[in-house]
Amino acid sequence: MKLISEETISRAYYKVKPLLSRRMQIAIRALVARQKRRLYREVWPIDSAAGSVPPQFVGWPNGKLFSVVLTHDVDTARGVARTRQLMELELEMGFRSSFNFVAHDYHLPPELRNLLVEHGFEVGVHGLEHNRSLYDSATAFAEHAKGINGYLKEWGAVGFRSPCVYHNFEWLHGLNISYDASSFDTDPFEPQSDGVKTIFPILQKGEYPAKGYVELPYTLPQDFTLYILFGERNIETWKKKLAWIAEHGGMALVNTHPDYMCFDGRPRFDEYPVGLYRDLLTHIQGEYRGEYWHLLPHEMATYWNVISGMAELKAGTDTVLPADGNLNVTVAVPPLGTSLLEKSKL
């Protein structure tokens, strides 16, 4: 008997999704997710294969053990309304992050985008609509790409994450981006669940260097999975995965959603207390003080281009010169060729 593929099931679900109440949608997804959690317990939240170190990796700057990148997908107008509160929380704690916005599903005030950038945050594009239509066909992707590239230019953005983290790494070369974040090391709960099996960035070379980009997989479980589908009430899963990433010297990239964060102390069925996210940031600061490199996604893409030979270091300085010339980022990097054992001495 021929088994029905996950892709077929996913397509069927998203076709009937508009007919279901939000509570019913979550109940169905939670039921499936709990079954998958048992089935994939050997590879989630940790897939041991993802800890292999890429051959070009020379370590993180200044002897840091691992890196921390914070990102947020803003799926709905509710998330837009909470963006400033989340920005202020991170500012208070000394962190910066990127916010990825959907272009057509809600109104995004230019003032909010400008506010984020003025405070050292980053803005990215999260598709034109929050559905899978971008990947219906190569023709559909090419048509969407015109609009996405327009918003990338208008917003001054260089990063993209697909809705529901669908991905086709070849098609993504059609976007004018420095990085894409539409993947993960391991996440069997997503509709396209093929993880890239690494906790490090990936250089996706194009036909010409200018059309290449860096793939930034998220490496900590998503907040929606942990707190809405599984109903967890602490950050133990995050802490466990973070410890493993730190041990293996990888990139801890977090993807959370202000849409699901409750700031008033009375979470609905599809929300969780924002204190859990604050607890994660507090844990990072306290448990790993001085041991991690915190940076924005576009800075990570620049760094990865450098150590992958796609950019140059200005002789005698620590200034990164991006290969595409579109970024204005300065980061200190260890001498090229420095080994993982030697980097701790820098």
Automatic annotation (TrEMBL):
Superkingdom, natural source: Bacteria
Q: Which GO terms describe its biological process?
A: carbohydrate metabolic process
Record's InterPro entries?
Glyco_hydro/deAcase_b/a-brl (IPR011330)
- The protein here is known as NodB homology domain-containing protein
